[in-house]
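The step that takes the researchers longest sounds almost clerical: writing a folded protein down as plain text. Below is the pair of lines this work produces for a single protein:

——
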Amino acid sequence: MADQKITWKYILACSSAVFFTWIIHEFTHWITSESLGYESILRLNSVSPVSGHNWTDVHNVYISASGPLITVIQAVIVFVVLMKNSWNKTIYPFLFTPLYMRLLAGGMNFINPNDEGRIGKFFGIGVFTLSILVSVFLFFLVYKISKTYNLNWKFNTWTAIIIIFVSSVLILSDQILHIRIL
């Protein structure tokens, strides 16, 4: 049975996974926007064009797609590593965090279309379709690893709680402090 003890090292691994996943996700939005010729602002939980400029609809789709794409790639890489190698508790949060992140983004579509929501809206397939597909795929990856290593519900619940807490701190910090990275 895989080591499922929640330690300070594991909490640090979860925290690192949240910050890494969020930063790489937002950085990919930013680099895509910059590559398309827009001067953009990168924050902890958002990217926006500099005041007075707007993305075209097509460019908005590219920019919106780039973040979830890198998040899914991260999850697939971690999944493959965990399937090919033995259990590594410290990298598991790098698989679990993308699932939580895309579920949260999908839920936020109720308030304001998020990445997959904006893409779905652009293509006329609804704001929830892509969010559901991406979330189901990521859930499958987490489920497969959980079954492979006999991860129990308690371990996954604590993983979720830690990731939810750390991501909430990150999101609230961004909303309150408006931390500009680039």
Notes: The longest helix spans residues 8-35. The radius of gyration is 17 Å. The first strand starts at residue 40 and ends at 42.
